[in-house]
Amino acid sequence: MRLAKAYTAQPATITSWPAGSRGYRHFSLLGERGQGVERSVELQAVLERGFRLVVPLRELRNRQLWQPGWQQLPPAAMQIIPAIDLLDGHCVRLHQGDYDQVTRFSDDPVAQALSWQQQGARRLHLVDLDGARSGQPVNDAAVKAITTALSIPVQLGGGVRSAERAEELLSFGLDRVILGTVALEQPELVDELASRYPGRIVVGIDAKNGKVATRGWIEESSTEATALAQRFCASGIAAIISTDIATDGTLAGPNLEALRAMAEASAVPVIASGGIGNLEHLLSLLSLAPLGVEGVIVGRALYDGRVDLAEALQAIDEGRLQDPTSASMMA
Question: Which of the following is catalytic: 128, 130, 206, 248?
């Protein structure tokens, strides 16, 4: 067998790797090992030279697992959306949705929003934590200031439980509003708003152990998250934001199994949220792109410096480094 200088891991290979996989697709050939039936090759990830695999030659020959050369990723980029969670006018993050476990990152939401825009973000995600918990519009002044200062689209969720509130928020200059609790309790209202404001209504489905949680994650329902997603297949909503409460704010990695189930159940694009802690976690989501996962919301990892936004954009957003201009490097 003539070996190529480069190989692309196929989805069946990536999803078989342990613990959520690292998500690297493109590998360079370092060398060979063994002889006969024990013959194998050592491969090195293009984006992380420290990540190496020893692959048996018989596995490398399987074109469902590996392809020679560097293949382009699916045409649609995976959009990275920085998050700003607002609590009493401050930028914070909650640990697994617990209001008693709050980390404050900034006292100037507008400056933080401008920073993400300047670093290349193409969309910003806002969460009104006060609104989510109590339904009170505590952070409206901050929301208006952010939409006025930014040129990129801004979306917001948290406490949007009536048509009047959704319309008020859209009047602030928001591109999209996200309906969570009301999507479970008044799904007909979502249908109505989606019809009235095409492309501007998003459903947020927050789940714990597969069940929908509402009212700022304080209340848990008996409704399956995937069943709620299916309910809105024909509603005309722009997207579904799927948040796994168990991983949110933990930096431990996304729940790929839950995201896959959500993407398979949904007829509209899915945006992942929760658990992102490093670049490898972002790369792992690329295996779900063909199923309709088109974006990912990142919060704590950006503020902690565990993920560099510019590097992340190069990895999975437009102009990705995993899309070399030379699509094939055959020997």
Answer: 206
Together in a domain, 201 and 288:
yes
CA–CA distance, 74 with 161 (Å, rounded to integer): 36
Same domain, 18 and 140: no
Q: Is 35 inside a domain boundary?
A: yes
Number of domains in the chain: 2
**Are 154 and 303 found together in one domain?**
yes
Is 98 one of the annotated active-site residues of the chain?
no
Pairing of strands 40-45, 26-33: antiparallel
64 pLDDT band, cuts 50/70/90, is confident
pLDDT tens digits, one per residue of 290-327: 889 999 999 989 998 999 999 899 888 875 655 443 33
Domain that holds residue 13: 6-68
Q: Which of 331, 326, 202 is nearest to 273 (CA)?
A: 202
Q: What is the CATH number of the domain that holds 189?
A: 3.20.20.70
Distance (Å, rounded) from C-alpha 100 to C-alpha 143?
A: 24
Active site residue 85: yes
From the list 247, 248, 233, 252, the residue with the least C-alpha distance to 292 is: 233
Cβ atoms of 14 and 51 within 8 Å: the answer is no
Contact 41, 32 (CB under 8 A): yes
Q: Is the pTM of this model over 0.85?
A: no
- Give start and end residues of each alpha helix (H) in the chain: 11-14, 57-60, 109-118, 129-134, 140-149, 163-171, 181-185, 187-196, 225-231, 256-265, 279-284, 300-304, 309-316
- Evaluate if residue 216 carries a pLDDT over 70: no
325 in a structural domain: no
